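Box 4.2: Ligand-aware structure prediction
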Amino acid sequence: MRKEERDYGDSIIPFSGGIDSTYLLMKYKGIPLVINDESKMFRQKELPAIRSILAKLDIRKGYFVRFPETDFLEIGSNSVVGLIPGYKMLIQLTAMAYAQKLGKKYVLLGNSKQNTEFKDEQYKNVKKLEALYNTVYGTDIKVECPLQELEKYEIIKMAKKIKLPFGLTQSCCNQFTSIDCGICSGCIKRKEGFKLAKINDI
Ligand SMILES: [Zn+2]
């Protein structure tokens, strides 16, 4: 059985309003965990997408976490250098804490092949952090990345089959524009994915 076909039962799914985490929510019927990292991008792009997708899918149960500032800021400067290192580890730990609190066995992360440039999204590191958490708290929470072996276009093809509302999802990670910029890594990978999948982005 292919990894993405597994039944994870009740799970916690960090939900960003992108295609990957929307796919996980629809496929595995997990509980969404929305992370508000106080960034402009979250308010302008992620939150509207998250709201419209949850409404469309009629998902009423979920959790909303407020993170402290996760942009890397210098004192006295308004320029954002980037996300703090370890941001994805923070998300994983938070999701594991929710799983523990709510008695869920699984946390599902939307990490796909395109994310492997980020060390904290690599499966071996996800599993190391999983082990650390479980050792510290004496829990047995499993963190899985059902999409980790898949390219974006493969996820898009699978998403099409379950009628994922692509038009409501958002991939842009440009914090300086209120609409999709078309030039950031998120926009480019999305465009490429749809092209390779031969599917229209609507
Ligand atoms: Zn963009």
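In the box above, the bound molecule is zinc ion. The pocket of zinc ion is lined by residues 172, 174, 180-181, 184, 186-187 (CB under 6 Å).
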